């Protein structure tokens, strides 16, 4: 008979965790996660995450959640605070999750983003220099667009944010990251809807009309677009509401009703009806004109987008003879702003409305050497490869999930001299970089982070790959 002797210590290490629920302890914060959560390493393999806790701070924490490999805690008391701390009166933005880094001084935010990219490249065993993050001169009130939920609470129409995991709408009027004219417009539109007792969509009963108020404002043009996103197909007192909004918002250029039943759409639907004014607004970017509709993808930080695209174009070392691909092209912003420096631009984008906008934008800017194609980027790259296209420069600006292996292979087979990767997610950037390098490219210079989203954990960067000869 075999007797199995189970080591009691083994069982203990597997089942007994280093913290208990509701346990309080005095600790020093070790590190910070990219989403702004402080990290305390209770043991070398068991971290506990704490909102609003900065490395170096001495705190008393209380454990609020115990999982197998990590836990969560809240701060009970700050015994020593960090000199990197700021904006203590803006805790509500951390609770809302809309500006999770707001308590960190801006230089520390920029360094956190640089370090995050560095760490992810190292994890891929890529020895790459990462430049200091280029930041904004004034990293507040920068967004040209916002969309906020509304709800009737305590007899008032409230606009703000849903507390995580609840149906309670916490009122907010100062979002800290939006153009302040946008914050003011939200309140005015909301109060007009309240005056006419318009129903708001209620997540509990799944009944009611208005779900969101969306506002866009041109940075240079100052043109304002208001979109009422509704669960119902009609809005009561439409004429009176339109008249009041026009009086209250003199900058208004476009007032849109977006019929977006909750069961079919996450936010906006493609069903727009112009209640007043134009269907679109305009703005300029690096001196070029862009048409922006309710559903258009348009970068939200106009000032930093100009810096980002300008640097990307410079790093691409464009030549008048270059054939350039603009992949994941949106409404054509990158291609249109570089077209006059190169021979030909070929864009590819999967959203039909965005491609239509890109074509309008080409015409609005008298660009004649660009072509925007509606297709899935990896499939189009394969077609270009089969057609023996030989681009000199390939710009890629993919969504968070990054590139696919198919797209990378097709790119490498077309053998462009330079690949300019604009990334909004360093996790997929580092993964894709490893593959691109493995297939015969080197990183040219350093990765350059450009802070498009101050106060938030989003990390945007430019990386140039050069073909090995
Ligand atoms: N370069 C543009 C848009 C970047 S956002 C700008 O800076 O304004 C990423 C874009 O990729 C979005 O417009 C999205 O619609 C598009 N996209 C997402 N998946 C795609 C795919 N499989 N093929 C082509 N485009 C895609």
Q: What CATH architecture of the largest domain do you see?
A: 3-Layer(aba) Sandwich
- Percent strand equals 25-35%
What's the CATH topology name of the largest domain?
Rossmann fold
β-strand number: 23
The bound ligands are:
S-adenosyl-L-homocysteine
Tell me, briefly, the overall form: globular
Would you identify the CATH H-level superfamily of the largest domain?
Vaccinia Virus protein VP39
Total domain modules: 3
Which bin fits the share of residues in helices? 25-40%
Radius of gyration: 25 Å
- Biggest beta sheet attributes: 8 strands, mixed
**N-C termini distance:** 68 Å
Task: Compute the number of helices.
Answer: 11
Describe this structure in words.
By secondary structure, the protein is an alpha+beta fold. It folds into 3 domains: 18-85, OB fold (Dihydrolipoamide Acetyltransferase, E2P), CATH 2.40.50.140; 121-136 and 301-467, Vaccinia Virus protein VP39 (Rossmann fold), CATH 3.40.50; 145-285, OB fold (Dihydrolipoamide Acetyltransferase, E2P). Helix content is 27%, strand content 28%. The chain has 11 helices and 23 strands. It has helices at 8-15, 91-96, 106-123, 180-195, 238-248, 302-315, 333-338, 352-364, 377-386, 405-414, 426-438, and strands spanning 24-28, 31-32, 38-43, 46-50, 58-66, 71-80, 145-153, 156-162, 169-171, 210-217, 224-230, 252-259, 272-277, 281-285, 288-292, 323-327, 344-349, 370-374, 393-396, 418-423, 441-443, 448-449, 461-467. Strands 16, 17, 18, 19, 20, 21, 22 and 23 form an 8-stranded mixed β-sheet that branches. β2 (31-32) and β3 form a beta hairpin. α3 (106-123) packs parallel to α11 and α9 packs parallel to α10 (405-414). The model is unreliable at 1-12 (pLDDT under 50). Bound molecules: S-adenosyl-L-homocysteine.
């Amino acid at each position: 008979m075999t007797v199995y002797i189970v080591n009691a210590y083994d069982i203990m290490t597997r089942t007994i965790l280093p913290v208990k629920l509701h346990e309080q302890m005095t600790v020093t914060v070790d590190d910070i996660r990219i989403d702004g959560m402080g990290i305390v390493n209770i043991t070398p393999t068991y971290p506990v995450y704490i909102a609003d806790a900065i490395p170096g701070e001495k705190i008393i924490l209380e454990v609020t959640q115990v999982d197998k490999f990590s836990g969560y805690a809240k701060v009970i008391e700050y015994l020593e605070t960090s000199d990197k701390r700021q904006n203590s009166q803006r805790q509500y933005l951390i609770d809302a999750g809309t500006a999770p880094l707001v308590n960190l001084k801006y230089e520390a935010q920029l360094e956190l983003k640089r370090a995050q990219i560095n760490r992810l490249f190292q994890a891929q065993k890529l020895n790459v220099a990462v430049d200091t993050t280029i930041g904004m001169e004034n990293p507040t009130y920068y967004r040209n667009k916002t969309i906020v939920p509304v709800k009737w609470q305590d007899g008032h129409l409230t606009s703000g944010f849903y507390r995580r995991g609840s149906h309670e709408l916490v009122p907010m009027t100062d979002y800290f990251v939006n153009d302040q004219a946008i914050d003011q417009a939200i309140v005015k539109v909301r109060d007009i809807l309240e005056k006419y007792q318009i129903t708001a969509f209620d997540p509990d009963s799944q009944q009611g009309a208005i779900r969101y108020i969306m506002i866009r404002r041109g940075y240079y043009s100052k043109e304002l677009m208001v979109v009422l996103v509704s669960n119902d197909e009609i809005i009561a007192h439409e004429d009176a509401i339109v008249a009041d909004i026009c009086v209250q918002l003199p900058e208004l250029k476009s007032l849109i009703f977006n019929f977006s039943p909750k069961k079919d759409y996450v936010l906006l639907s493609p069903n727009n009806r112009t209640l007043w004014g134009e269907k679109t607004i305009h703005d300029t970017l690096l001196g070029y004109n862009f048409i922006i509709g309710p559903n258009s993808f348009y970068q939200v930080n106009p000032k930093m987008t100009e810096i980002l695209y300008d640097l990307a174009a410079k790093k691409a070392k464009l030549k008048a003879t270059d054939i350039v691909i603009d992949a994941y092209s949106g409404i054509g912003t990158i291609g249109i702003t570089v077209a006059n420096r190169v021979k030909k631009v070929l864009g590819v984008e999967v959203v039909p409305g965005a491609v239509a906008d890109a074509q309008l934008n080409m015409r609005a800017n008298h660009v004649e050497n660009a072509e925007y194609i509606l297709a899935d980027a990896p499939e189009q790259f394969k077609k270009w490869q089969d057609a023996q296209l030989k681009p000199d420069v390939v710009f890629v600006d993919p969504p968070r999930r990054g590139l696919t292996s198919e797209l990378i292979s097709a790119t490498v087979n077309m053998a462009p001299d330079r690949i300019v990767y604009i990334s909004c997610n360093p996790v997929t950037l580092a993964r894709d970089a490893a593959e691109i390098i493995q297939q015969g490219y080197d990183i040219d210079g350093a990765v350059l982070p450009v802070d498009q989203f101050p106060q938030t954990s989003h990390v945007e960067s430019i990386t140039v790959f050069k073909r090995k000869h």
